[in-house]
Amino acid sequence: SNKRVLSIQSHVVSGYAGNKCSVFPLQLHGFEVDFINSVQFSQHTGHKVVRGQRLTKDDLDILYQGLKENGINKYSHILTGYCGDPSFLNRIAKIVSDLKALYKEDLLYVCDPVLGDGGEYYAPKELMPIYRDTILPLADIITPNIFELSELSGIQISNERECLNAISKIHSKCPNLSIIVVTSGLISTDNSQMYCYASKNLKNGNFEQCRFTIPLIRGQFVGTGDIFASLLIVWLDELKGNIKPAVNNVIASLQALLKRTSEAAFRFGAEKPTAFERELKMIESRFDLLVPNLEI
Ligand code: ADP
Ligand code: MG
Ligand code: MG
């Protein structure tokens, strides 16, 4: 098949976030990845000092026009993640609309509607209505966490029933959106596991829904959502849209990566490892990103 992804995300020179997380797993799995860096920063913003540059919405348009004028804008997927600027997000919507008009169902738009986590925004709040009203109706697959799902649906979520209600509300508002994966947010009562949910609109009035139980790994990591979205592209493509094995594979690879990262970060018994110590062990985990070990 035509495995070509256009990924519009951040770039960090050192460490892992945005495109630096998403591009490598896709390439490992044989995808041609064309990436546009919405920013180029020295490190991700969890570090003490961050320096760098931002791409403007007009810069983005110029790059897109270049691709289009050469007739090389035919992609199987568009992937977007964290975006810090409302007018840049609107421009992404314009580009996605343009590509969708040209290539229709041959193109899947995978959107991680990044807004925040744990009850708080870390992206500008003005992005939320743009995602809700403009982006989600264009998307085929979205990967919100529970906070983002709650904001986008306008439903308070503290349990599974409310989570599924919020998912249903988004499905009914966005009939073309076929897969919603809630990557994280609900935790077991003993704090040892987190839950992930996937929901697929079967477009015959029915929905396939699954819960995934994920053992919690000690530590807080940056870039896990970006890897999640890229591996989801890989496995939904490989497994022909079958959400249950696809999401299982994504979670299994992430488990191996985060175990390795966590063990290294806490190796010397530090209570609070630094941002550098918590950077993902991406290269060391290349085999785990390629072949998910479902036994873990
Ligand atoms: P988001 O960045 O959107 O809040 P997360 O990064 O929290 O999403 O989660 C993405 C995926 O990364 C989860 O579905 C899970 O598989 C994995 N993950 C992230 N943090 C942990 C953790 N502490 N323990 C286990 N898995 C984790
Ligand atoms: Mg999170
Ligand atoms: Mg996320």
From TrEMBL:
List the EC numbers from the record: 2.7.1.35
Give residue ranges for domain Pyridoxamine kinase/Phosphomethylpyrimidine kinase.
101-258
| GO CC terms in record | cytosol
Q: Which InterPro entries match?
A: PM/HMP-P_kinase-1, PyrdxlKinase, Ribokinase-like
Which GO BP terms apply? Answer: pyridoxal 5'-phosphate salvage
UniProt catalytic activity: pyridoxine + ATP = pyridoxine 5'-phosphate + ADP + H(+); pyridoxal + ATP = pyridoxal 5'-phosphate + ADP + H(+); pyridoxamine + ATP = pyridoxamine 5'-phosphate + ADP + H(+)
Return any one Pfam family short name: Phos_pyr_kin
User: What GO molecular-function term can you cite, just one?
Assistant: pyridoxal kinase activity
Fetch the SUPFAM superfamilies from UniProt: Ribokinase-like
Q: What EC class does the entry list?
A: transferase
- According to UniProt, the name of this protein is Pyridoxal kinase
Origin species: Panagrolaimus superbus
Q: What is the lineage of its organism?
A: Eukaryota, Metazoa, Ecdysozoa, Nematoda, Chromadorea
